[in-house]
Amino acid sequence: MNRSFELVEFFSGRKATFYTVLFDGEELTEGDKFLNNEQVKQNRAFKDLKHYFFNMLEKFGAQQQFFKHEGRQHDMVRAYYVRRENLRWYCVYWSREMVIFGNGGVKKVAKTQDDEHLKESEYAMRWVNQCIEQAFDEGRFGVDYDGKITGVTTFNAEEF
């Protein structure tokens, strides 16, 4: 899924700033797609997921205990989840102050690869991770101490 995209500020609080991804040709951001998904909203873990999400913004920052490693060995792709429940929200975990949220859903299978939607959501975040790491290495992307992105927020697929 090598598509051009923009990083858009999603939510900002005293302790963290959360971004989401808007792919070219899409009207909704990936984060909004997740929050508007009926299966997600009806999942028993959704209320807790939202509660911790907003607490991270205002009180604690993005604590690593809520982010399960999902990508390749040395990347920053994670799944945000609550207490071993089956709700997964894929993201790029940059720091306690900044996370980039993608899409996700209810995991009903043993392996993410066995659910096409979850697989696409995770792989999309792998692509985002690859692009921001390259831009960071080139000095075109950074994050300040408040979790605000410095540098590029638009990523053209042809450049990466």
Automatic annotation (TrEMBL):
The name this protein goes by in its record: Uncharacterized protein
Organism field: Fodinibius halophilus
Lineage of the organism: Bacteria, Pseudomonadati, Balneolota, Balneolia, Balneolales
